[in-house]
Amino acid sequence: MHKCCSLDQVHRPQRRINGLQLPLNYQQVIGWMVFVTTGLINFVILVRIQFDKLKIASQIIFIILYVSHTVSHLTASLIDPSEEELRKLEVNTVPEFDRNIHAHVIENGRCHLCNIFTSSKKTKHCSLCNKCVDRFDHHCKWLNSCVGRRNYGAFIASVVTALLLAIATSSLCLADIVLFLTNPQLLSPDAQDIINCNKNQTNADLDVKYCKNSVMFLLFLIIFGVSALAIGCALLHLYCFHVYISMLGVSTYEYILRSGTPPSVMPQFIKKCPCCTLKLSKKTYILSKSKTNKQKPVTTEEGPSEVKGESTSAKRRKLNSSPANSDTNVANLISIIVNNELEKARKIFMNDKNKIHPQEENS
User: Fold this and answer.
1) 138 by DSSP, 3-state: which?
2) What pLDDT sits at residue 239?
3) Is residue 360 within 8 Å of residue 319, measured between CB atoms?
4) DSSP state at residue 184
5) Domain Palmitoyltransferase DHHC: where (predicted)?
6) Is 207:198 a contact under the CB 8 Å cutoff?
7) Which residues are CB-neighbours of 167 under 8 A, at least 6 positions away?
8) How far is CA 149 from the centre of its chain?
9) pLDDT of res. 126
10) Residues 6+ apart with CB under 8 A from 357
């Protein structure tokens, strides 16, 4: 199974031409499974329980969206986003990068691994796909391929169509829940046969609204609708992020590298933001207090300050409870946490600086 699919991103000895080449990524396979499963549920169950006019409209909408998403997703996966000069070359085993010979993979516009001249400074060498990608945006695990200039439009179309599918699914589930609770007669005959609790009742005058079948029907609509809504929220966040970076004129890779705040500015920024300290967890606050308690006890020329009935620990608590000390330590702790997370993100995307142009690094 590990030869077919891979949980971790592995380096290929040869450059990847498309996202369907082995080994596949587990996230890619899970995405296909979710796509096929939700498609079957939508066409076999969800569309059939709608009333006549809504059934026809929802079926047409789903057909258009599923076909559009399939085409855009396959297009984004199958298009090779690598440099044009690289696509003209045969697929050979890429040599291992030796830092004793070169400081970076790409130097002065030339890639030492692909053995080509890059077309722009936005070209990066992806070590996972083992190729130079024209206007590199990011490596997508769901596509099992890089996203660059050639397939960026198809990638955005895939995200938008998947978002519309999630919105359509959750909307139909919400409409069916409302109809079930208010006027179930508007549902299709197939749905009424499922939720009809009176067909097995001996007394015809007794109107039973809830039974095992009707409760299971309502539970299915709630679970399926909430699942579609959760997927839609994640896709909406991704789409809004790409709209935002498009307005900034940067790629995902560049945004990650440039989004760090200098450590010297971070404490002052946190002091000006009262919400930052309010969102601290209890554990973080305890850590900051314990760090403060390690300070040296206050002494005078006459010795330890235990005179006048006041112990050293009491004065120390009084000192540590001052607002200035508490705010400073909390701000410093938040600064350390945020900087560590930003450093982790940089290490993931920079990939040991194998994709950076020296010109960009100097700038």
Assistant:
1) strand
2) 96
3) no
4) G
5) 110-256
6) yes
7) 232
8) 21
9) 87
10) 104, 106, 109, 118, 121, 123
SS3 of 309, please?
A: coil
Q: Report the alpha-carbon angle 220-225-227, nearest 5.
A: 100
The single-letter DSSP state of residue 241 is: H
Residue 304 in tokens? 């330890």
The whole-angstrom separation of Cα 6 and Cα 13 is 15
Domain ranges of the chain: 5-82+150-258, 266-295+308-362
> What does the alpha-carbon distance between residue 120 and residue 123 come to, in Å, rounded to a whole number?
6
**Does residue 114 carry a catalytic annotation?**
no
Task: Supply the DSSP symbol for 7.
Answer: S
Q: Which of 175, 138, 176, 174 is CA-nearest to residue 159?
A: 138
Higher per-residue pLDDT: 126 or 76: 76
Could you tell me the two tokens for 117?
A: 């001249």
d(CA 315, CA 171): 62
Which is more confident, 301 or 10? 10
| pLDDT, tens only, 85-139 | 888 888 876 766 655 565 577 877 888 788 888 888 889 988 888 889 999 999 9
Q: How confident is the model at residue 22, as a pLDDT? A: 83
What the block records as the tokens of 300 is 């005078």
DSSP string over 208-245: ----HHHHHHHHHHHHHHHHHHHHHHHHHHHHHHHHHH
Report the candidate in 26, 28, 30 with the shortest Cα–Cα distance to residue 5.
26
In which region does residue 119 sit, left (phi positive, over 0), alpha (psi from -120 to 50) or beta (all else)?
Answer: alpha
**Interval 24-75: pLDDT, tens:** 889 999 999 999 999 999 999 999 888 888 899 999 999 999 999 999 999 9
Write down the catalytic residue from 140, 233, 275, 276: 140
Task: Give the CB-side neighbour count of residue 131, counting CA atoms within 13 A.
Answer: 27
Q: What is the pTM of this model?
A: 0.68
Neighbours of 206 (CB within 10 A): 9
For residue 116, the surrounding DSSP H or E stretch is strand 116-117
Query: Are residues 116 and 166 in contact, defined by beta-carbon separation less than 8 angstroms?
Result: no
Averaged confidence pLDDT in the chain: 75
